[in-house]
């Protein structure tokens, strides 16, 4: 089993999810869809992007994705943007976020659970 293997299906899902995330960022400036549903989808987007390149079992890939998502969220708590002098940078705020919220961690977790359930059902 090769660690690096392109997967066209996951690449298409990643592009589709990126398009949806970009649309959400442009259309919704606040509220549930922008903040919570967007966070739910972003872990699925990351998962699909990574799975389009790396051939890892879902549980390992989900562990990587949730570690990245939680890591970025906790860096928000540590005020990373201020430390990097990027608090006024639109793209940095969009990609890294600017404020810590427990609800984001819940959304990431639910997104990862959704991935595991979906992958489990697809292997049956």
UniProtKB/TrEMBL annotation:
Lineage: superkingdom: Bacteria
Protein name listed in UniProt: DUF2809 domain-containing protein
Keyword Protein biosynthesis: no
Classification via Pfam families: DUF2809 (PF10990)
Stretches that traverse the bilayer: 9-26, 32-50, 62-84, 90-117
Keyword Transmembrane helix (UniProt): yes
Keywords, alphabetical: Membrane, Transmembrane, Transmembrane helix
């Amino acid at each position: 089993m090769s660690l690096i293997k392109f997967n066209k299906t996951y690449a298409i899902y990643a592009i589709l999810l990126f398009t949806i995330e970009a649309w959400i960022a442009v259309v919704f400036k606040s509220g549930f869809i922008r903040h919570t549903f967007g966070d739910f989808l972003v872990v699925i987007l990351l998962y699909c992007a990574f799975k389009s390149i790396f051939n890892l079992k879902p549980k390992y890939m989900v562990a990587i994705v949730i570690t990245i998502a939680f890591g970025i969220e906790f860096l928000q708590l540590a005020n990373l943007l201020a430390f990097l002098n990027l608090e006024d940078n639109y793209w940095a705020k969009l990609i890294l976020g600017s404020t810590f919220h427990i609800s984001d961690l819940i959304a990431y977790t639910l997104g990862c659970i959704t991935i595991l359930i979906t992958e489990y059902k697809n292997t049956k």
